[in-house]
Amino acid sequence: MEKLIISILSIMLSTCACADTEAIRIKNKTILLNTENCSIEVNGKKSNLALNRNCFFIKKSNSEEIRIEYYKDILSYVLLVVGTSVGNMPDFPLTQSRKDCGSQLQAIKISNIGNISLSRVISDTITCAGIGVDEKEFWILAHY
Questions:
Q1: For residues 24 and 68, is the Cβ–Cβ distance under 8 A?
Q2: Would you give the DSSP letter of residue 17?
Q3: Cα–Cα distance between 8 and 4 in angstroms, integer?
Q4: Strand (E) positions, 27-94?
Q5: d(C-alpha 88, C-alpha 5), whole Å
Q6: DSSP alpha helix (H) spans, 63-108
Q7: Strand segments (E) across the chain
Q8: pTM for the whole structure
């Protein structure tokens, strides 16, 4: 059911003038990520992430599906956002062909009761949203 809701949100957003927005629904909360200015909107309340422009939800490896992890020890769902776009960097060949790479990561945590919190930022890393990340990045940011 959750995958269906995610797919419907993706279709709705791709057909509107909101091309700079990604969306996901978790725990009865719709999280909209403004990819241009790195802000989120959750049920009408806006918050800025501590990332610079352009940012994207981390996807499952080489897919368009947004990756969500759940950690029982903190009773929270976790999404990662990559931001602070990096352009054509010769030392990182992927940045020459992809537009979803950035140098910072931040987690959005949604608790079982629906509270939302943000992690600190991990910097000095090159991550591409569509390629995904290892479990360790999720765990570190979920607990950071």
A1: yes
A2: S
A3: 6
A4: 29-34, 39-42, 45-48, 56-57, 69-71, 76-85
A5: 35
A6: 94-97
A7: 21-26, 29-34, 39-42, 45-48, 56-57, 69-71, 76-85, 101-111, 116-122, 127-128
A8: 0.83
d(CA 127, CA 86): 9
Q: How far apart are CA 89 and CA 74, in angstroms?
A: 37
Q: For 50, which DSSP code?
A: S
The Cα–Cα gap between 118 and 47 comes to 10
Q: Which band of pLDDT confidence, cut at 50, 70 and 90, is reported for residue 44?
A: confident
Residue found under tokens 């991550």:
127
Sheet holding 21-26, edge to edge: 21-26, 29-34, 39-42, 45-48
User: pLDDT tens digit string along 68-115?
Assistant: 999 999 999 999 999 988 877 777 777 777 889 899 999 999 999 989
Phi, psi dihedral angles at 22 (to 5 degrees): -115, 150
Tokens of 86: 């990096």
Q: CA-CA distances (angstroms) from residue 131 to 13, 43, 47, 50, 68? A: 21, 28, 26, 22, 14
Alpha carbon distance 19, 3 (integer Å): 20
